[in-house]
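FYI - complex with NDP, inputs then prediction.
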Amino acid sequence: MTDFTSKKALVLGGSRGIGAAIVRRFAKDGAGVVFTYAGSHDAAQSLAAETGASAIRSDAADRQAVIDVVAAQGALDLLVVNAGALVMGNPLELDADAVDRMIDINVRAPYHAAVEAARRMNDGGRIIVIGSTNGDRIPFEGGAAYALTKAALQGMARGLARDFGARGITINIIQPGPTDTDMNPADGPMSSQMHSFMAIKRHATGDEIAGMAAYLAGPEAGIITGALHTIDGGFAA
Ligand code: NDP
């Protein structure tokens, strides 16, 4: 456990999957948690009831909505940007609007959320963005656009670490490998192919990713910034 008592946390994209695991972990460890969601109203309400967190509907594809929801929280201690979209397939056939919407959610939202949070974040605050091992390695066809979004986060974290470091604000990217969620179920059609790239041939759980988020948000991680934290069973090894 990490002691987040009196810490104020915002998780963008917290209704399901990895984001919901982070909401549960931060709330269990004592933080006051607000999370956003887009489509999963029922899941968001039941997670809020379970954890005591507050749920706000806010579309991460809408830049102004992202800025407004972050600004409305005031001085945060912890920001996690988890909301993500996955558009895969033959790049010659993919719908260009779907690709651009993924770029809005996976790249533009984390950047604007991180900057907006830093405007009023408490010194020593923590910004964590969920990237992907695919930012480093994309060993199958059809993942170029997704990989570009996750690779973009790497440069963002390195740069913003310099911008906010004087205030003790850290920014880190967690890079999960296959993790059992609605986006990538452990029993899904690509599982055995994905496991073939891994040293430990199983999906991670959301709780394992949340554990890394708690560490990076906690008091022992104050000197870790501008860094990539891969948690992928050796997918990228
Ligand atoms: P899920 O699809 O299971 O959950 C996605 C979450 O993000 C939901 O809470 C969803 O809310 C929210 N979200 C999606 N789009 C928006 C939006 N436009 N506005 C607000 N919230 C949004 O995904 P995962 O939990 O698997 O993925 C979470 C993150 O981890 C993503 O960034 C993903 O790229 C990354 N990742 C996942 C891996 C995996 O194997 N699962 C591997 C590597 C990285 P709602 O349903 O309410 O719209």
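The chain has one domain: 8-231. The chain has a mean pLDDT of 98.
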